[in-house]
Amino acid sequence: MVRDIPVRNEPAILMSILGIHQVALEHKKLGITKEVLAAHVLPFLIPLAVENCLNPSQVSYSPILSSRAFSLLQPSQPCPVSL
């Protein structure tokens, strides 16, 4: 899946993938299941917060998207997930 894409030194590819994730998270018909979100998307997004090849504005986008993803998981949790 996403983890198989070699993107670590390609900022343009990383930002494109983040844009695709954003659209998938926000669009009701595309949507990402909570299971896929927790098992695949978040483990991909979180390490991007410390990626060296991105400039500061690009690096700041990853935690914002991660927060949105966590907020989608919160309604299904008996104890809210906090950042």
- Show unreliable segments: none
Q: Assess the beta-strand content as a share of residues.
A: under 5%
Q: Which structural class do the helices and strands define?
A: mainly alpha
Percent helix, as a range, is 55-70%
Order of helices and strands: HHH
Round the mean pLDDT to the nearest integer and report it.
77
DSSP E strands, number: 0
What's this entry about, in short?
With 83 residues, the chain is mainly α. Helices cover 55% and strands 0% of the residues.
Describe what you observe in this structure.
There is one protein chain. With 83 residues, this protein is mainly α. The protein has one domain (2-76). The protein contains three helices and no strands. It has helices spanning 11-26, 34-45, 56-73. The longest helix has 18 residues, at 56-73. The model has no long low-confidence stretch (mean pLDDT 77).
Structural key phrases:
single chain; 83 residues; mainly alpha; 3 helices; 55% helix
